[in-house]
Amino acid sequence: MCIPRSRTLGPAAALAALALGGAAVPARAADPAPTLTAPAAVAVDPAATSVDHGSGFTTVDLKLTLPGTTHPTRAVFRVDLTPLAGVASVRTPDGCTLAMQVLTCGQHWLVDGTSTQQLALYAPAGGGTAGATAVLHVTAAAGSGTTASDTKVTLGGSRLAFTAVPTGTGLRPGDSWTPDLTLTNKGQLPASRLYFTFTGGMDLTFAPRFSNCEYGTDGDGGQVVICTVGSTVAPGESVHLDPIALHVDTTAYTAYEDVAVDTTAPDRTGPLSRYHFTPGPAGSPRLTVGKPETPTAPGGALDLHRGNGTGLTAQVANSADFAAFGAWAPDTAKRQGKLSVGMTSSGPAAIRWRGGGEPAHVRVELPKTARVVAAPDACRLADPAPSASLDRYDCATGSVIPSGYFVLFDFTVEADPAAGGSAVVTLPSIGQDGRDGGKPWDPDKANDTATVALDGRTSGATPTGAASPPGTAAAHSPTATAPSSAAPTTRATTPSGTVPGSDLASTGATGIAPMLAGGLGAVAVGSGVILFLTQRRRRGAHRGARHR
Predict the structure, then answer these.
(1) 448, 322 contact by CB (below 8 A)
(2) Helices 520-547 and 11-19, interaxial angle, to 10°?
(3) Closest by Cα among 149, 84, 95 to 122
(4) Which strands make up the sheet holding 362-367, listed edge to edge?
(5) Per-residue confidence band for 222, with pLDDT thresholds at 50, 70 and 90
(6) Tell me: the pLDDT tens digits for 288-332?
(7) How far is CA 405 from CA 8, 263, 340, 458, 477, in A?
(8) Cis peptide before 376 (omega within 30 of 0)
């Protein structure tokens, strides 16, 4: 007679099987929990509308992270828009759907364990009341876990703006310059705390020492000063920052200082992270905006345009003498040789161009009877050529030419000694308008040109003993690079010129009685445990399918 097999174990066997479950089916470690990061607070511009195409939108950047993800995993973001009524509207992003005031964005995959979503907020339909607030609640799911974040949303904010400061004139190295810094709140809400950031290192030095300022320096000569002023600036109110004397450095020609203001502290994990800060002297005066300071609780109005600032520019009576040089060294066969060209600056001023380009680049023109075999990577062949008889190379230098600057570019050239040709080195200063500005800082134009004969004899010379002041700012170092056969030499470096999820763990069976000893019995009962749990899951799945 055939005895049908039972689909389940008896109570005793099942109990014994569960007792052995910890050994028969090892417990799985809990799946990693996802995390969702979002800004703690944002401000929405009451003037921003849905047709602004992003110009006035406030963005909320969401980032979902699931550690240890090595396979494609879908991520889903859900946003409840109901609380935002009268405070903000949200533009439906591409790939997202809106139903019953719930925004669902499910077209996401984790890449290297992360997925992002950006929400664009604008003013609510029909306007709203400045100062109204709401909480933007976002949930996200990835893997077997969920997480959430809350962002405070405020309609309106401050809008701090500086009055433009005229260029400082009539200054000489060593002078002090005190520009008038006027600040106006053009927003809808008061600014209850002001953070001023002064970025120097460009020939203007923040000289005074205030007790409510922190002074930061980096290894490249850059300087940042961050001052915290606890004064309220009401909408429509203008205030004047206390006079600040900026020292004009000896290297100044066109000097700069950048000033930014915000209602929240600057982010020190970005570019500011390379600065080392020390507090101002405790007994020194405080920097103010001409009105009393009051203790301010955190969480005041945000500024609608964070990082508002202005640039301070001073034109200083100073000079920098640029000089071109060139040298020719033919090989023993006198048919090929090394042509070295470059420039120096004996200062004393450092010439800086903030708008891009170079105060001067090295230009060399050669007769077409000479053939360039190898040129430095930093040197570009002009196309078309300046004339039917000449070729031209323009070699990049840098946006900052400090005192003591020296740059050298080596070309490998084939030249017929009998041709009698020469290479001419010049230092054009081409502005954004495409015209040569003439280097008004350079008092001696006679040494801006060097002519080198390309014949069978060594001619010309390169400067000896030229070296730049200590510095490590790669951003302003000459960018010339070349093949080994035509490597440029640069001896110039310059100072730098310059912001709770739930964990759905999945585990195996845990022991509910002391472990039983036994070899074959354990294997047999262990198989029963696997069968028992599998059958339960199958029946549960079928029941779930019938109720869907």
Answers:
(1) yes
(2) 110
(3) 84
(4) 379-381, 390-395, 362-367, 422-426, 449-453
(5) confident
(6) 999 999 887 666 789 998 768 999 999 999 999 999 999 999 987
(7) 87, 41, 16, 25, 10
(8) no
